[in-house]
Design goal:
188 residues; mainly beta; SH3 type barrels; OB fold (Dihydrolipoamide Acetyltransferase, E2P); 3 domains; six-stranded antiparallel sheet; 0% helix; 54% strand; Rib_uL2_dom2; elongation factor
Length: 188
């Protein structure tokens, strides 16, 4: 058993007959009244995100997990296939278990969190950022540049990302995986 002081991003816990992963948390100590922890929890079974507030000091039922490096191979509809980097065994997961599947390209190395009790995969964590090639974007229109003007661009995985006007087709860009936002252009 853990308490609310152990809550951190990535912690897996049992709550309401399901297993949730902490996506965001904030310890709040108001001037009046008891402290509490505000959390955003993502279900590892169906991908639903809920907001929850725990009173400070409350016991939580944490799940012991192991992390393993896997390589993303391919997807068939809603099922994504991965290969373990150590023993080359393969597993398949549903799209709901993935944080940002639209930014994952074949060959990407991801971290899969596995429940240590029953060896079931719980969720997939992407690297902090990925490098993707822009496959389609409109040319920037001169005169639209008041401040921080952006345009939509389609990357090689099919995802749409807002990029600055100077990005062209064929450019490689770094995309932050948690928010799906443009970070920088990669020079070759």
């Amino acid at each position: 058993m853990a308490s609310t002081s152990d809550i951190k991003n990535g912690l897996c816990m049992r709550y309401n007959n399901d297993i949730y992963k902490v996506v965001e948390f904030l310890h709040v100590k108001p001037g009046k009244g008891p402290a509490f922890v505000r959390t955003k929890l993502k279900s590892v079974t169906n991908g639903k995100v809920i907001d929850n507030t725990f009173p400070s000091g409350r016991k939580i039922d944490d799940v012991r997990v192991e992390t393993h490096k896997f390589q993303y191979l391919y997807n068939e509809g809603e099922t994504f296939h991965f290969m373990n980097q150590q023993d080359y065994s393969q597993i398949s997961l549903e799209k709901a278990a993935l944080d940002s599947p639209e930014l994952m390209k074949e060959g990407e190395i991801v971290t899969i969190i596995i429940n240590a009790e029953d060896e079931m995969p719980l969720s997939v964590e992407m690297p902090a950022s990925v490098i993707l090639e822009v496959t389609a974007t409109e040319p920037g229109v001169k005169g639209n540049t008041a401040t921080n003007a952006t345009k939509p661009a389609t990357v090689e995985t099919g995802a749409s990302v807002n990029v600055p006007l100077f990005i062209n087709e064929g450019d490689k860009i770094k995309v932050e995986t948690t928010k799906g936002t443009y970070q920088e252009r990669i020079k070759e």
